[in-house]
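Many introductory courses stop at the sequence. We go one step further.
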Amino acid sequence: MRLLRSTLATVAALCTVATGVVLAQPPQPAAAAASDCVGGKRGFRDHPDNASGDSVKPREFWVGNVHFTLEKGVYGSTQIGFGKISGQTRPGDKVWMDWRANGWDNADSVSPWLQCGPFTVRSAGQSLTTPFRRTSTDPEYQFRVCGSLVTDPPAKCSAWW
């Protein structure tokens, strides 16, 4: 694996020299764990796992019979967003929410991208949510829902909202 990475790095460097184009990797989230965003950490707030947002889901996708949704709603007078997994879930399925602010409102992070989760389904058919965070109309402040199934492990994510 180390040899492959070294080879890829060499190829990228040669392409950069030959074309003058710099290939940048997308920003990576800080090391993520569910404990990073529960109990009010980093501006996230906990709520029940069976919570639902309003009827408009900004982003969603299906993997088989499992539904991943980016939910939005109102808490107090503030619009919020959170991730949810529902449907024919199995123990070991996971959901998380990625959040990026591109330079503001994330002073406690070294990365402009935070991952809230993953949170793991514990029983068949369980709906599970991530903690919620306030949203914004600023296009630099974005959320997406991600997840993976125990029977289909590659992570999948919605488009950013």
